[in-house]
Structures are given as structure tokens and as C-alpha cells.
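Work Package 3 (structural annotation) set out to generate three-dimensional models for the target panel prioritized at the project kickoff. During this period the team completed the workflow that converts sequence records into C-alpha cells, so that structures can be stored uniformly alongside our sequence database. As a representative example, we reproduce one entry of 85 residues exactly as it appears in the project archive.
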Amino acid sequence: MYLQEITWIIAIISFMGSIAIFLFKKIVIEPLQKSIQSLDKTIQQLERSTNKQLDIYDKEIELLKIQATRHEEQLKTLFNKKEGA
């Protein structure tokens, strides 16, 4: 009789543990996984957006460099004309 009681107790504890693990998974793990996936998508979108912005800024900087170089050359030409006149 003693062995049967121990077996029943182990079975009940195993069943309760299984329920606790199942509930923990449903209540904690699954919502956490969904949140992590959502965060991952948001970070990927942010990365794409940031890369596009950086590309735009790089192009604008290149244009500004070209304009600055052109202005410097124009100023040199003006000073050279003024000195030569």
C-alpha cells in the first residue's frame, strides 16, 4: 500500500508540474516571444530607414563639397582678376 501511495503522489506532482509548465509557457514565454519578434521587426524597419537617411545625407554632403570647391575656385578667379587689373 505504501508504494501505491508514493506512486500516486509522484503522479499528482508530475501532473501539477506539467500544468504549471504549460501555464508558464502560455502566460510568460509566448507573449515574450511575440514582443521580441515585434521588436525585431521594428529594429529592422528603423535600420532600413536610417540607412536611407544616411544615403541621402551622403549625397547632399557630396553636392555641398562640389559647390564649396566651385565657390573656392570662383573666389580665386576673382582675386586673381582683381590683382591682375
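The mean pLDDT is 93.
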